[in-house]
Specification:
By secondary structure, the protein is an alpha/beta fold. It has one domain: Alpha/Beta hydrolase fold, catalytic domain (Rossmann fold, 3-Layer(aba) Sandwich), CATH 3.40.50.1820. The protein has an 8-stranded mixed β-sheet with strand order 1-2-4-3-5-6-7-8, with helices on both faces. Helix 2 crosses helix 3. The longest helix is centred in the last third of the chain and has 22 residues.
Length: 280
C-alpha cells in the first residue's frame, strides 16, 4: 500500500506498469478501484496511477469535508510518485521502492474529479503533461457554459440517480457489474454535500487557453448528466482544446463501455507523449 500526505491527511494511491504516466481521479461514487478496466488496458504501455481523494476509499478524513483541498491531494500524490515513494509496479509493497518515478502525468478526471484534476494541473503545470476532462467541463467559469451546464443538470435531476449514470440496457445485461458499480460508493465517507466548493476555483477560458499542456474534452453521446451539445460548445469557445464525443457512450463510459473510453484515452496519450518526445 502506498501513501502520500497532504496537510496532515494520508492519501492512498497505487502505481501500476511503467512508461509515461497517467493519473486517474475518480468521480463522486468511486475511488481508486473504479479504474480497474483502465489499469488492465493501459499498464502495459504506461505508468498508471490511481488514488483516493480524501473521504473516498482508503483515504479517511475525520475533519470537516471541503473539496477545495482536492487539487492539493492530487499534487501530493504526483510529488510522491515522482520521488519514488511507492512500489514501482503495484499498489502492494512487495518488492521494494522505486528510486524515482515519472515527473509528469496526464491527469484524467471523471465527472466531479475533473475539476480537481484541472485545478491541480493549473497550479502545478510542471507535474501535468495534459488533462482529460471526462464528462465534465472542469468548473470552467463562463456565463454561457454555466447556463448550459445548469440546464443539463436540471434535466438529469428528472431521472432516477442510477439512470443518469448507467443505461437501463447495461444494467439488464450486466447486473453483476451494475451491482459492483453501486457498491463502490459504500466505501466512501464523503457525500455530495461535501463537494460544495469543488468548482469554486474554476479557471476562465483565457486561463485554460494559456495553459502549457493539452486538454481533451471527452464525452459520451448519450451522457444524461452533461450533454454532448454542451461539451461541443465548450470546445468551440476553448481555443486549442481537443473534443471527442464517443457515439453511444453514457456518463459512466469508463465503466459501462470501457473499450470506447480506453481507446479515446489511448489516442490522446499517444499524441501527448509523441509531441513531448519530439520536443526533447
Amino acid at each position: 500500500m502506498s501513501w502520500a500526505e497532504s496537510n496532515g491527511t494520508r492519501l492512498y494511491y497505487e502505481v501500476h506498469g511503467s512508461g509515461p504516466a497517467v493519473l486517474f481521479v475518480h468521480g463522486s461514487g468511486g475511488h481508486h478501484a473504479a479504474w480497474w478496466q483502465q489499469v488492465a488496458a493501459l499498464r502495459g504501455d504506461y505508468t498508471v496511477i490511481t488514488m483516493d481523494l480524501r473521504g473516498f476509499g482508503c483515504s479517511r478524513w475525520e475533519a470537516e469535508h471541503d473539496s477545495a483541498v482536492f487539487p492539493g491531494d492530487i499534487i501530493a500524490v504526483l510529488d510522491a510518485v515522482a520521488a519514488g515513494r511507492g512500489p514501482a509496479s503495484s499498489g502492494l509493497a512487495s518488492s521494494g521502492l522505486a528510486s524515482s518515478g515519472p515527473e509528469r502525468a496526464v491527469l484524467v478526471g471523471q465527472s466531479i474529479g475533473a475539476a480537481a484534476a484541472l485545478r491541480a494541473a493549473l497550479n502545478r503545470p510542471d507535474r501535468a503533461a495534459g488533462v482529460v476532462l471526462a464528462h465534465s467541463l472542469g468548473g470552467l467559469k463562463h456565463p454561457e457554459l454555466a447556463a448550459l451546464v445548469k440546464a443539463d443538470r436540471a434535466a438529469a435531476e428528472q431521472l432516477p440517480v442510477l439512470d443518469r449514470l448507467l443505461t437501463p440496457a447495461f444494467r439488464a445485461e450486466h447486473p453483476d457489474r451494475a451491482f459492483l458499480f453501486q457498491q463502490m460508493g459504500t466505501f466512501n465517507t464523503a457525500k455530495m454535500a461535501d463537494l460544495r466548493n469543488l468548482g469554486s476555483d474554476g479557471p476562465t477560458l483565457d486561463e485554460l487557453a494559456s495553459a502549457p499542456f493539452p486538454v481533451l474534452l471527452l464525452a459520451g453521446e448519450k451522457d444524461s448528466v452533461l450533454s454532448a451539445a454542451t461539451v461541443r460548445r465548450a470546445g468551440e469557445l476553448l481555443a486549442g482544446a481537443q473534443v471527442e464525443i464517443v457515439p453511444g457512450a453514457p456518463h459512466s463510459m469508463y465503466w459501462e463501455t470501457p473499450a470506447l473510453f480506453n481507446d479515446a484515452l489511448a489516442r490522446f496519450l499517444a499524441g501527448v507523449y509523441a509531441a513531448q518526445a519530439s520536443r526533447a
